[in-house]
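Customer escalation, tier 2.

The customer says the design service returned an amino acid string that "doesn't look like it belongs to this structure." They asked us to rerun it and document both sides in this ticket. The original structure tokens are below, unchanged.
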């Protein structure tokens, strides 16, 4: 099922906006993915906190005030994930900038300097006072 998604007050200068549709299968997939991510990110920490293992924590910590091995492993894994995602974001930003520079270098087929453009909004009806 597809629904048209052009709003009533859509700008007139967007090309092919009337052909834009919202697909139900994509919408359902996105909703299921968002709900699953929310449940997983909330459920895993809740499961860890629901079963307190006092003896294991005391053995891991020992006499020092540092975290145990499992906590250190989790911190290291999170640091690696953070570093990897920042590298991916930096590469994506670099590719976007490279694409924008390439778009600015494309030959338009005409000389765009000293060109004047204008838009006219003609009312659909004439007001009754002007007749």
């Amino acid at each position: 099922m597809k629904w048209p998604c052009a709003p009533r007050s859509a700008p007139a200068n967007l090309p092919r906006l009337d052909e834009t549709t919202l697909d139900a299968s994509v919408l359902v997939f996105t909703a299921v993915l968002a709900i699953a991510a929310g449940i997983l990110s909330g459920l895993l920490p809740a499961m860890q906190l629901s079963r307190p293992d006092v003896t294991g924590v005391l053995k891991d910590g020992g006499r020092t005030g540092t975290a145990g091995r499992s906590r250190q492993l989790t911190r290291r894994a999170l640091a690696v994930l953070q570093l990897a995602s920042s590298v991916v974001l930096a590469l994506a930003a670099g590719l976007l900038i490279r694409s924008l520079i390439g778009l600015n270098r494309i030959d338009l087929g005409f000389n765009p300097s000293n060109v004047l453009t204008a838009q006219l909004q003609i009312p659909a009806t004439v007001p009754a006072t002007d007749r």
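Tier 2 assessment: The sequence is consistent with the input. The two ends are 47 Å apart (CA to CA). DSSP finds three helices and two strands in the chain. Sent an explanation to the customer and offered a walkthrough call.
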